[in-house]
Write a structure and sequence with these properties.
Two copies of one chain form a homodimer. Chain A is of the alpha/beta class and about 180 residues long. Chain A folds into two domains: about 50 residues, no CATH class; about 110 residues, 3-Layer(aba) Sandwich (Rossmann fold). The first copy, chain A, has six helices and nine strands, in the order βαββαβαββαβαββα. In chain A, the strands form two sheets. The first copy, chain A, has a six-stranded parallel β-sheet, with helices on one face. In chain A, α3 links the parallel β4 and β5. Chain A is globular and about 60 Å long. Chains A and B meet through α3, β8 and α6 of A and α3, β8 and α6 of B. Chain A binds a DNA duplex (22 and 22 nucleotides) through α1 and β2.
Chain lengths: ~180, ~180
DNA sequence: ATATGTGAATAGGTTCACAGCC
DNA sequence: GGCTGTGAACCTATTCACATAT
């Protein structure tokens, strides 16, 4: 499957997905395979990244350079998927330099200007819970329309802004529930 | 709602959940409210933590003390939810001490013994992708039945083992897709 | 023969509408 | 009046069964 073709009928075992599921999902966006043969990997891959809007490198900012924020800055798995953390922001600029991270870290005051100038649309929010809503409001005002939120609260945003939550405690609770025997 | 009662009819606006949804969900586990009045917070809270298995502090181990692993070790949000990271494991014990973390960090060799002796059932997996499956096999052999996996691959485990995936790139892609206008 | 594409059937989850209780 | 509890109605997502193309 490295290049050439892949077959929905044979491949899904690896991904634990049923073949019909995969094909049905694809049909919502069009027809991409050839019957009896399979799918052209290159063509399919292109259409998916067009669909996800990751064809060109998307700029993302990170707000809140604490432990988790630093970890995400060091995580080089985003670029591979078409995202680039172009800058990070924090109230405290001291003690953030212990790791050598290529991403510039700015003070919060520079955020609005930066976001507007660069036309950034997405933000990763790794700030302490008590200030998460307040900072979210700022982000929305600057024109951010997608927020990946790590604070364990429900953020309130206008309808045209999308929030995606990552709540690690809930993930563990989930496991805990299903584990019991 | 701090203590006393809460009403499903009034409260959900904050959590962006419909009142019927909340009530329906609760009925799958029994009846906990009183009609016309609401729910007793203490009683409901107790039943939920019983249900989630978080009534007593659950021991969890963390495997892979890289950037993300370190961040999670510093994250004090788990205890609050009934989980305690009792130990961390890594192949490389050097350079892990730059942060002062209360959790002991052991070498991988000590993992099987530790897990068996302490009867740990849950693990947080923050190792590099290429070794994730191999280490998962070890964990399963030691008796771990719940894995919170941060590596971007589908882990293969026996039926009685549950894997919960956290894939940050996918979360961003999700946002990216819904953001486009 | 093999694999895709898709309407029909099924399963799963959410919302409605209202009965029951305070 | 208030709010919970719940069958019925509704909506969404998955699976089946098979027509279609190579």
């Amino acid at each position: 499957m490295a290049s050439g073709r892949f077959r929905a009928k044979l491949w899904p075992a690896r991904a634990r997905v049923k073949s019909t599921q995969l094909r049905k999902d694809l049909t919502y966006f069009g027809q991409f395979g050839t019957r009896g043969l399979g799918y052209d990997v290159e063509q399919l891959s292109k259409m998916i990244s067009d669909l996800l809007g990751t064809t060109s490198l998307q700029p993302v900012i990170l707000v809140g350079v604490g432990n988790l924020g630093l970890a995400l800055l060091s995580y080089r798995g985003f670029e591979q998927e078409g995202f680039e953390i172009v800058a990070a922001f924090d109230i405290n600029l001291e003690r953030k330099r212990n790791k050598d991270i290529p991403t510039p870290i700015h003070s919060m005051e520079r955020l609005p200007e930066f976001v507007r100038e660069r036309g950034v649309k997405m933000a990763i929010l790794t700030v302490p819970t008590p200030v998460a809503q307040e900072i979210t409001n700022t982000l929305v005002d600057c024109g951010i329309t997608g927020i990946l939120n790590f604070a364990p609260i429900v953020l309130h945003v206008p309808e045209d802004v999308m929030v995606n939550n990552v709540n690690l405690a809930i993930e563990l609770e989930n496991l805990s529930y299903f584990i019991q025997q």
